[in-house]
Amino acid sequence: MSLDQIVAQPTIETTRFELRPVRKSDAGLISHYAADERVSRMTSSIPHPLPPGATEAYVERAMQAEQNEFVWAIDGTRDGGAELMGMISLKRMDRSQSEVGFWIAPTFWNTGVASEALQSLIDANPFDDGALFATAFQDNPASARVLTHCGFEYLGDAETFSVARDANVPTWTYSRKL
């Protein structure tokens, strides 16, 4: 698949929730959770403190029809759960590869939400990728466990700039063949 092809973003069903495209009404809950320093410090791109308008701009980008990154809200309302438990995304790369990223609201940490969301995204493989890549900050072993639980293999150490920390942060890099 070439990067100039437009792929319709699917909704992905899991046993406990669905991964659905982001909508404007998600902005309030995204702001609520993303403003939590425990969340922002474990991502490369969420600033802390969260500036005014940042979430709305993020939602607008996520909703654009032509994009190289698909962002899904982890939504539990189908089964009476929370409307937003976190976010998961795939950013297209070249050669049938994508980079996966995710964050989970602290309320849902250690509940299996991240593993189920990631495994469901792998199973759906919406870009028909041959491989996925991901990184985890070395001070976030929970994310590393999610990746290895879902079949990702450790590739090596690197570092990534974290906007919230205003510093380069050591990371572990993982890949998974599909």
Q: Briefly, what is this?
A:
This protein is an alpha+beta fold and 178 residues long.
Walk me through what this model shows:
This protein is of the alpha+beta class and 178 residues long. It has a domain of 117 residues: 3-Layer(aba) Sandwich (Aminopeptidase), CATH 3.40.630. Helices cover 24% and strands 31% of the residues. The chain is built from 5 helices and 8 strands. The protein has an 8-stranded mixed sheet with strand order 1-2-3-4-5-6-8-7, with helices on one face. A hairpin with a 4-residue loop joins strand 4 and strand 5. Helix 1 crosses helix 3.
How many β strands by DSSP? Answer: 8
Oligomer: single chain
Q: Which topology of the domain at 12-128 does CATH recognise? A: Aminopeptidase
The CATH superfamily of the domain at 12-128 turns out to be Gcn5-related N-acetyltransferase (GNAT)
Largest sheet: 8 strands, mixed
Helix-strand blueprint:
Layout (H helix, E strand, L loop, with lengths): L11 E2 L4 E4 L5 H8 L2 H4 L13 H10 L5 E7 L10 E7 L4 E8 L8 H12 L6 E7 L3 H9 L3 E10 L4 E11 L1
Parallel strand pairs: 5-6
Antiparallel strand pairs: 1-2, 2-3, 3-4, 4-5, 6-8, 7-8
Task: Name a few traits of the molecule.
Aminopeptidase, single chain, alpha+beta, 24% helix, 8-stranded mixed β-sheet, 178 residues, 8 strands, 5 helices
